[in-house]
UniProtKB/TrEMBL annotation:
Catalyzed reactions: di-trans,octa-cis-undecaprenyl diphosphate + H2O = di-trans,octa-cis-undecaprenyl phosphate + phosphate + H(+)
SMART domains: acidPPc (SM00014)
InterPro entries assigned: PAP2/HPO (IPR000326), PAP2/HPO_sf (IPR036938), UPP_Pase (IPR033879)
Identification of the protein by name: undecaprenyl-diphosphate phosphatase
Amino acid sequence: MIEQLNQTLFLLINATPASPEWLIKLAIFIANELINIVPMLIAILWLWGQPRLMTAQRAVVIKTAMAILISVSLSWIIGHAFPHDRPFVTGFGYNFLHHAPDDSFPSDHGTVIFTFALAFWCWHRVWSGVVLFAIGCAIAWSRVYLGVHWPLDMLGGLLVGLCSCLLAQMLWNGFGARIYARLHQVYRFCFALLIRKGWVRD
């Protein structure tokens, strides 16, 4: 029954040869490029900001990175424990985006972007989490629309992201201060010249 629901939802979303070319191109851009907001925002929050906010920002960055590492690991484990073919591998629907025929559940893109959105929702600002969640939904739609994922692959990514944020918070509660101190020490050593020049924050 779940598989039937998965297929039904996929057919409702998946593009066809009759779909507008501009919409397919937009979906390809969203599917390939919007995920880059993750490393970009992590770098911005760590390197720049008001001095009084830097400690809090960097704590968000570290917890978010921890959550993403956990979520990617969980995604890999689940994908190998419960392999599921992508739609184009089974010849189901239409495919408009080149992709390796590896396991589809849960979606790696969905896992990362939803983990990122939930992390910002919990640890940064609600509004930033909402914006990132909307971007996550756009990425999820695009990858189903283009035929490289099933809808439930994206739901799986969301659930993995939620669990990963909870686990990251538990780790932070126990080891956060030590992790922060060690990473800040490494950062100050590696970026000493840029810090002295004032190009990035101490």
